Amino acid sequence: MAGLPHPEHPDITAAMWEQIDAVIERHRGVPGSVIAVLRECQQIVGYLPVELIDAIAAGLNLPRSDVFGVASFYSLFSLKPKGRNLIKVCMGTACYVKGIKEVITRIEAHFRVAPGGTSADRRFSLEAVRCLGACGLAPVMVVNSDTYGDMKADRVIEVLEPYS
Amino acid sequence: MNQVRTQLMLCGGTGCRANRSEAFRETLQQELERRGLAREIEIVETGCNGFCAVGPVMLVQPEGIFYQKLTPEIVPHLVEEHFLKGRPVKKLFYVEPASKETIPKMEEIPFFAHQMFWVMRNKGVIDPEKIDEYIARDGYFGAAKALREMTPEQIIEEVKISGLRGRGGAGFPTGIKWEFARKSPGGVKYVLCNADEGDPGAFMDRSVLEADPHAVLEGMIIAARAIDAHRGYIYVRTEYPLAIRRLEIAIRQAREYGLLGKDILGTGFDFDIEIYQGAGAFVCGEETALMRSIEGKRGMPRPRPPFPAVKGLWEKPTVLNNVETLANIPLIITHGGRWFASVGTEGSKGTKVFALSGDVNNIGLVEVPMGTSLRRLIFEIGGGIPRKKKFKAVQLGGPSGGCVPEQYLDIPVDYEEIAKVGAIMGSGGVIVMDHETCMVDMARFFMDFVQDESCGKCTPCREGTRRLLEILEKLCEGRGEPGDLETLEELSRIIKESSLCGLGQTGPNPVLSTLRYFREEYEAHIFEKRCPAKRCVALLKFEIDPEVCTQCGACFRACPAGAIAWKKKEPARIDKEKCIRCMTCFEKCRFDAIS
């Protein structure tokens, strides 16, 4: 739907809109492509503001409720902005048994960020995620794309400090 | 082709990568070049070796020397000693935890010695990004045989004879599933591979995809031929980027070699595969939910019948098989169903891959013949419980499964035998728990998972699991009341009976099985307000028993809040005003003096 005016949004620049349009264009008319579109658009913007979801719905010619329904169903998609650094702590059974709970408590207390939330200064987002499949390293924490195994509560703050 | 005298099979699985195997490889390559050895010694990055606990690991071929816990710092010494002077480096050998004996060769390490590599036949042996190496180990032989020499009926018959059952958890006979789909009328059919491995504590599918992606493609080609499908999808978790990358490479190479696409091997048969990335929903491991997700909808299950073999993806007949199931198929076609069925028990044939984790020494992937006892799995292959702690229970089958206590450890790995004691084979997650694990807390953990992942379609599952969680949280916080256990049982029964899909039908299992074997632990939480395993923070007193305290000061040094007072030759004391109840002292105390 080229030519459709883009809604104003502080987190989406004109360059981003261009990329978003290209993603929608590529998938238009392909059945079942909405999840792929949402994934790629989230990679561009960082999260999925409602205005973006509306634009995707219009672009793919789908009801807004369908697109929102998919975006809210899958844990990959976030409707809220994220921090500069994403901490994922693995809540798989092996990590749980080996003490990830204590690690989370320590992060929460030190950086004032709750699981599922973002710290007020947007430095960290904390996510308690499903088993990362790296049980051999339990307890596991992933910061951005760095994986830390054998993560103990008394070491975690030291590991996180360099991420500003 | 350049002849090399030695190949270094360095594990490139997720576990070893997280332990800096990349940095090790780069340093090693530079050192080999500097020493002029790069032409005779080749580094091969393999898929997951399975022995994640001691990673990064490397196998030196053809000698069979196995090195563990490698670091970039050790490289100069290693190259000098082993590759120049021919003296293997002893301090990098595996050390048996019990006997402290060093073992240089891979096949002699107990972890590997009791295993049987069928599904993982190529792990650590080939470069998963090179199709030629797969073919050199009889890869695509099964597909060629199936396409050229066998009718679809013969393929299905062979799979039926093999007795192969679905490795994703339910254990449905694969041959029968294919037969249903074959007989369903319709011009368009699909073959799907379920690589949405979501069970916490299961990582065998990831490892197979990372180590041997072509085995899965070959299995899909054979399945497609059997049911006459021309299109396949691999539904893989987006959390597995390395597996996705290797699959993409494998599919591209298979197309170049004429093993996917139009007119495969000149037989006139067309089949192609696409990767579909999941978006993070446990319920999508359920077959009908997975198909909804590929269709771009919310991944919610629908009632069966009609079964997917009749009406599946886009309402067309569809076969959905798990990664491990598909990786078995080429073997069955190559060697025959009877050969496959010669291993295993009466009702469970072949091997099973387990992901061993939790409180066990040798964490990693293991493949054993069906019929192996749990005790052998945990104590001989797994090397027992670390730090001389006591075994308490083992959780099989993740959140849909149950725990097995000590007295049943001699049961064999077999779909029916495991079900008899209240657990399930499941996808093969084996989580070992020592005596410091609280079973009520464990049930709470699984219920938190299930209620979060419930898609919300069926009320008993959506609301019931939440109520179960509330009761379990109450128990862990010391607010349990008489009657709670009966409510747990009643609710569990109703959820199991009235849910549509496997998630709800099996979700209460962890509660029921822990209640079955550890009821007294639940009762201690309710009637004595005590957590025997000392895990539930609300039920702990944070007091040090001066009689038991050895005055070592470990807790004092570890306390992040400065709440512990200790002097040499005096028992430590906790200042409850300052204590933040973080449990660090419990972890540090080796004498069980804190309660």
Q: What is the rounded distance between the termini of chain B?
A: 67 Å
Gyration radius of chain B (Cα, Å) is 26 Å
The domain count of chain B comes to 5
Average pLDDT confidence of chain A is 89
Terminal CA distance of chain A reads: 40 Å
Average residue pLDDT of chain B: 93
Range of strand content of chain A: 5-15%
- Shape type of chain B: globular
Q: Output the CATH homologous superfamily of the largest domain in chain B.
A: NADH-ubiquinone oxidoreductase 51kDa subunit
Report the radius of gyration of chain A as a whole number of Å.
18 Å
Main sheet characteristics of chain A: 4 strands, mixed
Strand order of the largest sheet of chain B: 12-11-15-13-14
Summing up helix and strand content along with how strands pair, one would put the structural category of chain A as: alpha+beta
CATH architecture heading of the largest domain in chain B: 3-Layer(aba) Sandwich
Let me know the number of strands of chain B: 17
CATH class of the largest domain in chain A: Alpha Beta
Mind telling me the CATH class of the largest domain in chain B?
Answer: Alpha Beta
Total number of beta strands of chain A: 4
Query: Which two chains form the greatest contact, residue counts included?
Result: A-B, 44 and 56 residues
Q: Give the structural class of chain B.
A: alpha/beta
Output the CATH homologous superfamily of the largest domain in chain A. Glutaredoxin
Salient structural properties:
heterodimer, A: 164 residues, alpha+beta, Glutaredoxin, 2 domains, 4-stranded mixed sheet, 44% helix, elongated, B: 595 residues, alpha/beta, Rossmann fold, Ubiquitin-like (UB roll), 5-stranded mixed sheet, globular
Task: Walk me through what this model shows.
Chain A is α+β, with helices and mostly antiparallel strands. Chain A folds into two domains: 14-73; 85-160, Glutaredoxin, CATH 3.40.30. Chain A has seven helices and four strands. In chain A, a hairpin with a 2-residue loop joins strand 3 (141-143) and strand 4 (146-148). In chain A, helix 2 runs antiparallel to helix 3 (50-60). Chain B is an alpha/beta fold and 595 residues long. Chain B has five domains: 6-106, Glutaredoxin (3-Layer(aba) Sandwich), CATH 3.40.30.10; 131-341, Rossmann fold, CATH 3.40.50; 351-434, Ubiquitin-like (UB roll) (Roll); 439-527, de novo design (two linked rop proteins) (Up-down Bundle), CATH 1.20.1440.230; 541-595, 2-Layer Sandwich (Alpha-Beta Plaits), CATH 3.30.70.20. Chain B has 24 helices and 17 strands. In chain B, the strands form five sheets. Chain B has a five-stranded mixed sheet, sandwiched between helices. In chain B, strands 2-1-3-4 form a four-stranded mixed sheet, with helices on one face. The radius of gyration of chain B is 26 Å and the shape is globular.
